[in-house]
């Protein structure tokens, strides 16, 4: 492993956890109006479809990661 990777791994973090904390810190340090614009860009949504017997049964909008796999 390279040296920077070692530090976040030793802290027990995943790469996504490291990136999330780093971007939150960066966004928090911005001045208005860039701060509001940056925080608005972090929201997401997508549609999940389920298939049964090769037929699409319906779409569900996912807006939170906690509900993504359910």
TrEMBL record:
Pfam families associated with the record: ATP-synt_Eps
CDD domains linked: F1-ATPase_epsilon
Cross-referenced SUPFAM superfamilies: Epsilon subunit of mitochondrial F1F0-ATP synthase
Gene3D superfamilies in UniProt: ATP synthase, F1 complex, epsilon subunit superfamily, mitochondrial (1.10.1620.20)
Molecular function per GO: proton-transporting ATP synthase activity, rotational mechanism
GO cellular component: mitochondrial inner membrane; proton-transporting ATP synthase complex
TM annotation in the entry: none
Family assignment from sequence similarity: Belongs to the eukaryotic ATPase epsilon family.
Protein's recorded name: Uncharacterized protein
Protein's organism: Triparma laevis f. longispina
